[in-house]
Amino acid sequence: MSRSAKRTVKRDKRTGSADLAVPARGLSRRGLLGLAGASVAGIGLGAAGDRVALAASASPGAASASAVYPFYGSHQAGIVTPAQDRLHFAAFDVSAGTTRAELIELLQDWTIAAAAMTAGQDIGEYGAVSGPYDAPPEDTGEAQGLPTAGLTITFGFGPTLFETADGVDRFGIAARRPADLTPLPHFPGDDLDAGRSDGDLCIQACSNDPQVAVHAIRNLSRIAFGRAALRWSQLGFGRTSSTSTAQATPRNLFGFKDGTANIKAEQPDVVNDQVWVSSSDGPAWLAGGSYLVARRIRMTIETWDRTILSEQETVFGRTKGAGAPLSGGTEFSEPDFTIAGRENQPLIGAAAHMRLAHPMQNKGMKLLRRGYNFVDGNDDLGRLEAGLFFISFQRSPAQFTTVQLNLAKHDALNEYIRHVGSALFVVPAGAADGAYVGSALFA
Amino acid sequence: MPRVLRSASLLGLGVLGIGLLSGCVANNPAATHTALTVDSSATDCAVSANEAPAGSIRFSVTNSGDQVTEFYLLAEDGLRIVGEAENIGPGLSRDLVVQLDAGSYFTACKPGMTGDGVGKAEFTATKTDAAATVDVDLAAQIVTANTNYGSYVSDQIDQLVTGTDAFAAAYPAGDDDTARSLYASTRVHWERVETIAESFGDLDPKLDLREADLEEGQNWTGWHAIEKDLWPQDAEAGFVAYTADQRAALTEQLVADTATLHEKVEGLTFTLSQQTNGAIGLLDEVATGKVTGEEEIWSHTDLWDFQANVDGAKVLYDGVRPILLKTDADLAASLDTEFGSLQALLDAQRVGDGFTLYTDLTPAEIRALADQVNALGEPLNQLTAALVL
């Protein structure tokens, strides 16, 4: 059986069988997409479970649980959205033989499903438990009874989607590839695992409930079967960034507050200047989008834990307790890199992480950081496989490259960390209601 | 690889407070301490009490002024520094934990870090039954230990120079067998004092940079650049052996940089904290580079380096062990045991004058070595507190 024949069978299972069961309804997911410009407001009405309604009685008053962020809009959600507590990030490779039309269909299917899940609904017409009794459920069901928990789903395109490493233009979009979308350079100390790096497509699912985030990636992976396959994925159990002034700065696994000076949603001018690609930056289809850098940073926490407190603080340039810069003040005080202590040495040392990452040391460049702590079991040496899954959004990859080159060369923290995974994606602008994510690229 | 900071920061800061010793072990839940606060303002140094029971006392110093400040605890003569908290930025707090015998002391602050300081006041540690007593002979032992370690560092670098000269005769002459035989045994002298050698920030990357740590366009020199040329079987496809000119240039640079290192270590002095934390630093070198096989990815002679790092840590420990026996004999016994267990694991891998290649170790053998490094690391963590507090 040919691959395309398999796919036809699969599609019949997912949509055709529903039509057979309730022919009068007629509107499959694909049918909805076929109505160009038509509203998709009908999604989720009817039989599919509406988790918002269920959740309202289950946990009233829990703001982080009941938060709902709209999927459609001028920018994708999950960037300036207040950083949720949990992450499931996934990178995909488009399957061999997939056509441009099939890729577009995948993005359409993903859009519909993401819009449903972020609204607290099961995917598909019948959801997890309301479909035909003799068919596998459309929705995998583990999010039943859970609130939306602020779920956002953010899609991105890797350099290889536009052109493979061998220079093959699989989808007729090589000419539309943004000039800045090239693989990141090798940074000193990089120890990258190809199996944890790169990818044609990515999905960032963030939620305040880990199961809601996993449910999203699981169902989107399932929808992609035959068209795109998981290349790597990463769970993050705790946010390390705050992207809103309403949020306290969390701690990384070294026990420090890092990224206190992150770009915040309440700074629209900075967001416009540093995060969103402007129409003047080019290409035109990317206006309102951003670049996403993901780095899996392994921390040798066992070594760190043997390190004396004064060195720990010297490495970061902050106090471990309050997170204040060593030059004085409180957590949000602007660091003074000139103030000197004993032997005229600066209180925030030349190799301090905070100094090197500061915009002052990087031509004013800032990153919107949205990283997560992870612990993926342990390694063969009995050490926790722990670290930071770093994510940043920026208007140009050069912002990340500038900062990371500075850190990779000089940062005292390098003694305790290792970059083992790396990926760069371009994140298109948000989809308008009725359109799909990335439609401008294929227009 | 550059593992610079620990030793560099310690060399730069000079940790004091070695005058008073007792068997205070971190994480001992039974230990109780007196908590006092100090307000260091522009004009005063207000301690929340002017006396406390002898034993562990924690001064939480808050800088309420607008200059960088220091807090001093001085001996009865008003001169000798018993403990200090330095480099406290405006608005910040820092704790000074000391172990005090009954007696008279002075407290003082130094906003601006110059001059005579402000708010000098008497402080009394009152007699208690539980308070530890201090052996005054220890001060002399500390001086001896520090001096001996300085000599050890100097001796190792002397031998590094001698070994490098022999290596430099063989490698550019194309005598690869001799060069390979000298590679690991010469580097041993570097690895034994690695944390000291690395404290000279510019020399370490010149002499010991691994290929993975290169940045684009950076010129690669030092031992590992030569290692790849001598053991090219694991090199990437298309790797071309160095020309005679390249070999000569690398050798010349290696000899010159080693000579510079030799000059820099002459006359170095150390404090007790530098010794104890140097031992931890060497063990961390093992944990991050050697036990993972990442240090010698072409020659796979990681266990030579492993043994040398442990040698250096053991020398540091042995230097302070007589002092530790008086302050915390239990910790000394624990460290003796764990060092012994680690050495037994290494001895089991000895082959002739050297060791099993890293690539010939079984996963279980590597795991056992890694576990024992952690087992030694935990009591070693307590060494500084046990000696310095």
Automatic annotation (TrEMBL), chain A:
Subcellular location: Cell envelope
Entry keyword annotation includes Oxidoreductase: yes
Enzyme kind, highest EC tier: oxidoreductase
Cofactor info, note text: Binds 1 heme b (iron(II)-protoporphyrin IX) group non-covalently per subunit.
Domain Dyp-type peroxidase C-terminal: 249-431
GO cellular component, one term: cytosol
Any one Gene Ontology BP term: iron import into cell
Keyword flag NADP: no
Gene Ontology MF: a single term: metal ion binding
Essential cofactor(s): heme b
Keyword annotations: Heme, Iron, Lyase, Metal-binding, Oxidoreductase, Peroxidase, Signal
Cited SUPFAM superfamilies: Dimeric alpha+beta barrel
Family to which this protein belongs: Belongs to the DyP-type peroxidase family.
NCBIfam families in the cross-refs: Dyp_perox_fam (TIGR01413), tat_substr_1 (TIGR01412)
Stated name of the protein: Deferrochelatase
Organism: Cryobacterium flavum
UniProtKB/TrEMBL annotation, chain B:
Organism: Cryobacterium flavum
Gene3D superfamilies: M75 peptidase, HXXE motif
Keywords assigned by UniProt, alphabetized: Signal
Main location: other
Protein name (record): Iron uptake system component EfeO
Family classification: Belongs to the EfeM/EfeO family.
InterPro entries: EfeM/EfeO_iron_uptake, Imelysin-like, Imelysin-like_EfeO/Algp7, Imelysin_sf, Iron_uptake_EfeM/EfeO
Cellular-component GO terms for this entry: cell envelope
Phylogenetic placement of the source organism: Bacteria, Bacillati, Actinomycetota, Actinomycetes, Micrococcales
Domain Imelysin-like, chain residue ranges per copy: 147-383
Subcellular location: Cell envelope
Superkingdom, natural source: Bacteria
Residue spans crossing the bilayer: none
